[in-house]
C-alpha cells in the first residue's frame, strides 16, 4: 500500500480531518521559508505542501504568483531544496512533506531523478498541476519505482469517465479542486453554476479508494467543518500565505488554530 | 500541418491545468467539425473577403530588385488586411468558431496590441464580450492600441505580475480561462499554446500561403524559390510556409529578433545558435528562452510582436528537421530594412515584418537573377510611428508631442467645452 495512504489512514484514526499547509520555498527567503515550514510542523500540521517556484505559475492566483516571483529574485536550486526538505522530514516524523511545482523546472531537473531524490528525502508525494496524466507514463513509472505517489487533480468540471479514471490511478491521495479558477482570492471569479461541494465529493468518493484532499478557496472554519466525513485532508494555501503576509508566522499559526482546532 | 495527438516531433502537446480539460476537448471537437464543414469554410471565406479585404496582393518590388541586383523580390501584402496585419485571418476564424460553440465571451493576450485590436474588432462585429490581457509595461509602450481596444468596447486588463509583458499576459489569460471556461473562449493570437491551438491558428493563417501558391503561378509562372517570414510566436510564418511544405524546391527562411545582442535578455532568438532550450510551459512543449533551472527569462526586440519567450511548436519542429532555415536580424538592421522599403517601394512595414525584410535583403544580392523570393509583409507600420521616429532620430517629433500635449484638454470642463 502507498506510504502516503497508510500515513493518512493512521492519522485519521485520531483526527476527523487532516491539515495540509502550503509554503512557497524561498519566500521571502530560503531561510525564512524553512523556518516557517519548521514552525508549521512544530504546531502539528499533518502535511506541508512545499511549492518550488516557477516563473509562470498558471494555476495560481495573485498571492502565490507574487510569492513565487519574489522567491525567484534569488537563484533557487531543486537539489538544495530537496535535501533541506529531507532534513525537515527527519526532524518531524509525525508530519509528511509533499512537493508541488510546475513541469518545466522539474523537467529540467529530470523527472526520474526527481522521483528518486524525493523518495530518498522522504518526500512521499509530488504535485505537478500542468502535467496531464496522458503525458505522464514515464513519470508514473519513476514514482512507482521509488515508492512515492504522483498526486492527480480532479475538478468540478472533470467529466465522469475521466474522474473515474483519475480516481482509479490515485494512490497516495486524490487532490479534489473545490471550484473553478486559480488558487486563492482572484479577480477571476467563475460565474458558472456549480453542483454543491457535498454532491461533488460524494461523487468522487464513489470512484476513489485513495484518501481525498480538498483545496482551492478554503479560508473559513465552516468550510473545514463541511469537509469532515467527506474528505480526509483540507489543504490551506493562499489564505495561509495572506495571513503570513499580514502578520508573519504568528498570524499564520493563529489561522491554522482557528481553522483546525 | 497535421499533428500527432497534438505533437509535432517532440514539441506541442497539451500541458494544462486539469480544470481546462473539458473546455479544451470542446475546442478540439468544434475545430475538427468546423474545418470539415463546407458551410463554415464558406462563411470563413466570405468574412475574410468582405470584412478583411482578402485576397491580399502579391506585390513585385522592381526598385528593390534592381537595388540588390539579385533575386526578384515580391511581398505578400498582409499589411493590407483590415486591422493592418495577418492577425485578422486567425481572429475571424476563431470568432466564427466561438459563435459555433455558443460562447458569449472571448479572452485574449496581446503584446504590442495588434492581436488585441484584431480581437476587439471581431468581438464588436460578432457581439461578443471581450477581455484583453496586456502587460502593464506594454500598455505604457503601446497606448494608442489600448485606446482603440477600449473604444471598440473591450475591457483591457493591465497585467502587473512578473516582467509585465506578453508572457505574463498569456499566463493571466490562462488564469481567466481557468475560471470562466464555461462561457469564455481563449482566443490565442499565435500558433502556440495547448493543442489544438497551434494547428488551428496555422490552419486559419494558411490562407496566406494558399493565396501565394495561386498568385505566384499566375504572376510569374512558378512557385517561389524562397519564402521569408519573421518568427515571433510563429503564426505568419506558419501561414506562409505550411502550404508549401511538400514542395521540396521551395526554401523557407524564418527570421527571429536578434534585438540588441546575443546575451540572454537582449534578444528573442529561440531556434538557432543554441540560445533556446526545450521546455514545457504555458500549455505546450517548445524551445524556450530559460535559465539552467528552467525559469523562463526576459526577452527583447524593437518589435514588440516578436519578443515572445517561446515559439510555435510547428516552427520549432520544422527548424529541427531542417525544413525551415532559421536566422535572425538585429534591431539596427531592422530599422535599415524598414527605411529602405519606405524609400524604394512606398510601403510602410511593421517592425516585426521588417525582420523578414532584413533577412531577405541579406540574401537577395547573392541569389540568381531569375530566382523569385516572397517575403511575408505581415503587418503595416503605422503603429510603430513612435518607435521609428525615435530610431531615425526625427527632430520634429518631440516638438509635435510637446505641442500636442500643451493643447490637450486635461480637465473635465475643457471636455465639456469641446463637446458643446
CATH class of chain A: Alpha Beta
Order of helices and strands of chain A, N to C?
A: HEHEHHEHHEHEEHEHEHEH
Q: Any low-confidence stretches of chain B, pLDDT <50, length ≥5?
A: none
The largest interface is:
A-B, 51 and 37 residues
pLDDT averaged residue by residue of chain A: 94
Indicate the CATH architecture of chain A: Alpha-Beta Barrel
What gap, in angstroms, lies between the N and C termini of chain A? 30 Å
Strand content of chain A: 5-15%
The structural domain count of chain B equals 3
| Structural class by SSE content of chain B | alpha/beta
The total tally of domains of chain A equals: 1
Rg of chain A (CA only): 17 Å
Question: Span between N and C termini of chain B?
Answer: 57 Å
Helix content of chain B: 40-55%
| Number of DSSP strand runs of chain B | 14
What is the 3D shape of chain B? globular
Unreliable parts of chain A: none
In the CATH hierarchy, the third-tier topology of chain A is known as TIM Barrel
Amino acid at each position: 500500500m502507498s506510504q502516503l495512504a497508510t500515513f493518512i489512514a493512521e492519522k485519521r484514526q485520531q483526527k476527523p480531518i487532516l491539515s495540509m499547509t502550503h509554503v512557497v520555498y524561498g519566500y521571502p527567503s530560503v531561510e525564512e521559508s524553512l523556518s516557517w515550514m519548521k514552525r508549521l510542523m512544530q504546531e502539528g500540521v499533518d502535511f506541508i505542501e512545499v511549492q518550488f517556484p516557477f516563473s509562470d505559475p498558471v494555476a495560481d492566483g495573485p498571492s502565490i504568483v507574487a510569492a513565487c516571483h519574489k522567491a525567484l529574485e534569488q537563484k533557487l536550486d531543486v537539489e538544495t531544496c530537496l535535501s533541506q526538505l529531507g532534513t525537515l522530514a527527519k526532524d518531524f516524523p509525525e508530519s509528511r512533506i509533499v512537493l508541488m511545482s510546475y513541469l518545466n523546472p522539474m523537467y529540467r531537473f529530470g523527472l526520474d531523478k526527481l522521483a528518486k531524490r524525493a523518495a530518498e528525502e522522504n518526500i512521499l508525494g509530488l504535485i505537478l498541476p500542468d502535467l496531464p496524466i496522458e503525458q505522464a507514463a514515464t513519470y508514473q513509472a519513476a514514482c512507482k519505482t521509488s515508492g512515492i505517489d504522483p498526486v492527480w487533480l480532479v475538478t468540478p468540471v472533470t467529466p465522469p469517465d475521466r474522474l473515474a479514471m483519475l480516481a482509479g490511478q490515485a494512490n497516495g491521495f486524490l487532490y479534489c479542486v473545490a471550484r473553478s479558477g486559480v488558487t486563492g482570492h482572484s479577480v477571476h471569479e467563475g460565474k458558472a453554476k456549480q453542483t454543491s461541494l457535498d454532491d461533488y465529493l460524494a461523487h468522487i468518493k464513489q470512484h476513489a479508494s485513495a484518501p481525498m484532499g480538498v483545496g482551492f478557496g478554503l479560508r473559513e472554519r465552516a468550510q473545514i467543518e463541511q469537509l469532515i466525513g467527506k474528505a480526509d485532508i483540507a489543504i490551506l494555501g493562499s489564505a495561509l500565505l495572506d495571513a503570513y503576509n499580514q502578520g508573519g508566522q504568528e498570524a499564520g499559526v493563529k489561522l491554522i488554530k482557528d481553522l483546525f482546532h | 500541418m497535421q499533428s500527432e495527438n497534438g505533437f509535432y516531433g517532440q514539441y506541442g502537446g497539451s500541458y494544462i491545468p486539469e480544470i481546462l480539460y473539458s473546455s479544451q476537448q470542446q475546442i478540439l471537437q468544434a475545430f475538427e467539425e468546423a474545418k470539415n464543414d463546407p458551410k463554415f469554410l464558406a462563411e470563413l471565406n466570405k468574412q475574410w473577403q468582405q470584412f478583411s479585404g482578402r485576397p491580399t496582393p502579391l506585390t513585385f518590388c522592381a526598385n528593390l530588385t534592381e537595388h540588390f541586383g539579385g533575386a526578384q523580390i515580391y511581398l505578400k501584402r498582409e499589411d493590407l488586411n483590415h486591422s493592418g496585419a495577418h492577425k485578422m485571418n486567425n481572429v475571424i476564424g476563431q470568432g466564427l468558431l466561438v459563435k459555433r460553440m455558443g460562447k458569449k465571451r472571448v479572452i485574449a493576450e496581446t503584446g504590442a496590441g495588434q492581436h488585441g485590436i484584431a480581437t476587439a474588432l471581431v468581438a464588436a462585429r460578432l457581439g461578443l464580450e471581450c477581455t484583453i490581457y496586456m502587460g502593464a509595461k506594454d500598455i505604457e509602450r503601446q497606448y494608442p492600441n489600448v485606446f482603440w481596444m477600449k473604444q471598440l468596447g473591450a475591457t483591457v486588463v493591465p497585467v502587473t505580475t512578473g516582467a509585465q509583458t506578453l508572457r505574463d499576459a498569456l499566463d493571466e489569460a490562462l488564469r481567466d480561462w481557468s475560471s470562466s471556461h464555461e462561457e469564455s473562449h481563449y482566443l490565442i493570437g499565435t500558433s502556440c499554446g495547448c493543442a489544438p491551438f497551434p494547428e488551428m491558428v496555422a490552419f486559419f493563417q494558411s490562407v496566406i500561403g494558399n493565396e501565394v501558391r495561386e498568385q505566384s503561378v499566375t504572376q510569374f509562372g512558378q512557385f517561389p524559390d524562397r519564402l521569408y517570414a519573421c518568427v515571433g510566436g510563429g503564426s505568419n510564418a506558419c501561414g506562409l510556409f505550411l502550404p508549401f511544405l511538400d514542395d521540396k524546391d521551395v526554401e523557407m527562411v524564418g527570421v527571429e529578433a536578434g534585438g540588441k545582442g546575443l546575451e540572454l535578455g537582449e534578444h528573442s532568438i529561440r531556434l538557432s545558435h543554441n540560445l533556446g532550450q526545450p521546455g514545457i510551459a504555458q500549455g505546450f512543449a517548445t524551445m524556450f528562452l530559460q535559465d539552467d533551472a528552467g525559469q523562463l527569462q526576459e526577452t527583447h526586440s524593437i518589435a514588440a510582436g516578436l519578443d515572445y519567450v517561446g515559439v510555435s511548436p510547428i516552427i520549432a519542429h520544422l527548424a529541427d528537421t531542417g525544413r525551415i532555415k532559421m536566422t535572425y536580424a538585429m534591431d539596427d538592421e531592422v530599422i535599415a530594412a524598414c527605411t529602405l522599403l519606405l524609400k524604394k517601394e512606398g510601403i510602410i512595414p511593421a517592425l516585426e515584418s521588417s525582420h523578414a525584410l532584413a533577412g531577405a535583403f541579406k540574401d537577395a544580392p547573392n541569389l540568381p537573377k531569375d530566382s523569385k523570393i516572397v517575403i511575408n509583409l505581415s503587418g503595416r507600420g503605422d503603429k510603430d510611428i513612435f518607435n521609428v521616429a525615435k530610431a531615425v532620430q526625427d527632430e520634429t517629433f518631440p516638438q509635435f508631442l510637446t505641442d500636442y500635449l500643451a493643447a490637450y484638454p486635461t480637465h473635465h470642463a475643457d471636455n465639456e467645452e469641446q463637446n458643446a
